[in-house]
Amino acid sequence: MRSLSRLTTVGVLGAAALALLTGCLGSSDSGDSGGQDANRNADAKKVELTIGSNSVKGGKSSAGATFLEDVLIPKFVADQKGKGVDVTVKFQGDGSDDEVYKQKLSLDLSNKSGPDLFQIDGIWVGEFAQAGYIKPLTDTVGDAAKVNDWDGWKQIPESVQALGSYNGQRYGVPGGTDGRVLYFNKKLFQQAGLPADWQPKSWDDIISAGQALKKLPGVTPIQINAGTAMGEATTMQGILPLLVGTGATINSDGKWLGNTPQLRQVLDFYHQIYSTGLGDPVLQKEAKGRDKSFAEFAANKIGVLGESDYFWRSVVEPKEGVAKMADRDSAVGWALIPAMKPGAGVKGQDFVSMSGGGATVINPNTKFPQQAWELMQFMNSADMVKESLDGAAKITQRSDVNSEVLSGDPMLSFIADKVLPITQFRPGLAEYPKVSAALQQATADVVAGKSTDAAATAYEKAVETAAGSKDKVTTN
Amino acid sequence: MASPSAPVEGVAPARGRGPARDVAGLGVGRAFGFVAPAFLLIGAFLIFPALWTIYIGITNYRLTGVEAVSPSVVGLSNYTKALNDALFHNALWLTLVFVLGSAIIGQNILGFTLAWIMRRTRPAVRRTVEAFVLLAWILPSTVVAYLWVAFYDRDGGTLNSLLGTQGTAWLIDYPMACLVVFNTWRGTAFSMMLYSSALQAVPPSQLESARMFGASGWQTLRDVVFPHIRGHVLTNTLLISLWTANDFSPFLLTKGGPNHESETVPVYIYNVALQGGELGYSSAISFLLLIANLLVSLVYLRLLRRRS
């Protein structure tokens, strides 16, 4: 009897606690949208700001971290000192996989902490905005004119501004864009009897080059990212460029791509590469597969590799790259990604590409919103953007800077002149990351030996769940 | 919960009065004052999170997106989803394999064998072996995981160099087998120590008699040693299977991959919660894991009680 009554007490207490909890979850966020004073601490003489970025000196995106820590921060501090404000800016670098960085940021932001300014991938803007983790710049800064009158906006093309926008509102300032191409190792191409100015015109051309490379001992002919371990790199470097090469896009007329012939063509191409020894299926499953593929390319063990200009700037870059190639300029060639057949690409194109990019956003819970916006403008001024390049070239967000710097680098002017005009951007929709995960799983299934049809069927089911209903998915 | 009070109640009627409720003479108020700090700690760090998990488990709370701001209660649909989720079934099965292979068989047998052999060896040898086995147990998981990744690595891994099997990706081709070996190595120390002390409880005279009657080694173990340490075997098996079932270090080696082939339940929960952002669903699975743990404990407790 006694134990029974004790049980009842525990039960009642538990129920009471549950009742107390109910309604606490998440609701704390909805109450204060716009409730905070945007001018809080606007006149503070002692200011502390933190910049968060997924880069770290000597590791991931080392050049970016070096710029933020050694150039931007000291210059901003000096600039503010001139205005009589004592600013301390801390750099919170990270060197992890993008997914891990995103998890960490989300957890920080959901607890109203995290850095005052931080860089995120353009495709996260939608879900972060929906979660209230970031707010439109005009809300955070409080004064619409102050944000919209910034002269930098005029220099940033609309398509690039979209990387930091959601539902037509600006959430952050984009940090430039990129384009995807096929990189190839000219030394291996020479050994295999392939031309140094290789430019495939169809998927079959890629395959036949792969077959020629396969004859070289110890060489993996083709690396097209696949599987879930590489995360978004699989979608962006592999599936989506192939998909636009079939004439389809991942989201059209408000519907997500389902189990269509185009999707199956893409999966068939994966199957062809990974079942015939043209690609290394094990690499796609390894936890550090992408890093390993970089190292193998740099060690002349991979013939063709699909990547963005990031690969050229930060991976095989001779000085600061994560997989340095001392002879990059002579050994690494690049080619446009061909459509499946000439003219079969999206908009009837012969060649296709995908572009993305990040944006810097302000934490809505920063103690110093005005100063954060100052730093944001300072960071994206023509001078600083130019400084961030440190003599190297990169497709920046600012047209004025681009026209000055890109001519110095053949690869990047190729991206700017040849790739950006034919490129596609990912939809900035909140469901996108889930659809992307489903695509990655489909390639993982194919690489693991599942049939294309089975993988495509499973994919469609996952997309229906992600999109919320069958009506939002295209079929056949 | 009721079991500790049972013997007290059994004794009390003999004295013709109710059970002694206040042996220490503190009074109810002061007694509560004494245990209050403990209760507060348990409440804050054990009961509250557990209730919180149950609550999140009935919502569609997500890490990002609309449901992160305004989650709604979805009742039991997370649980029905789990019951129909092929990946969850996969995770359960892999956890079972993991517990059976690395804890119930691996750690138990290796731990006992070490304890049995070490019983008669010179103290110097015993101390050295124990130190090494213990080292595997006390090193931080991240350090250990790094060593084992290097051990299993496809390019220049130690195992490949030893066996001359260059290019074999052990963690990709045989992920579960790798994890079982890893966890056996990692956790054997506990079983070894527990059995070492348990074996001291076996009366040497009985072992002597067994030898005089010509019992074989196996007969001695089965008929003389085992009856003495049965309780220890059960306790040990209970503890190590619970630890193993809840162990997260497989994530450090394989992240659950390749393609979910080594995704035990704790890893699956992590992947669902943080990779997929589905905090509500992952909480529901966490709660199911909690229930499974309780059930396993109950079965073991039954077995233990039947012994006495």
UniProtKB/TrEMBL annotation, chain A:
This is Carbohydrate ABC transporter substrate-binding protein (CUT1 family). Residues 1-27 form the signal peptide. It comes from the Bacteria. It holds the Pfam family SBP_bac_1. PROSITE patterns: PROKAR_LIPOPROTEIN (PS51257). Keywords: Signal.
TrEMBL record, chain B:
Keywords: Cell membrane, Membrane, Sugar transport, Transmembrane, Transmembrane helix, Transport. GO terms for cellular component: plasma membrane. Its main location: membrane. Belongs to the binding-protein-dependent transport system permease family. It is a multi-pass membrane protein. The chain crosses the membrane at residues 31-55, 91-117, 129-151, 279-301. It is found in: Cell membrane. It holds the Pfam family BPD_transp_1. The keyword Transcription regulation does not apply. One of its GO terms (biological process) is transmembrane transport. InterPro entries: MetI-like, MetI-like_sf. This is Multiple sugar transport system permease protein. PANTHER family: BLR7065 PROTEIN, SPERMIDINE_PUTRESCINE TRANSPORT SYSTEM PERMEASE PROTEIN. It comes from Kribbella kalugense. Residues 93-300 form the ABC transmembrane type-1 domain. The keyword RNA-binding does not apply.
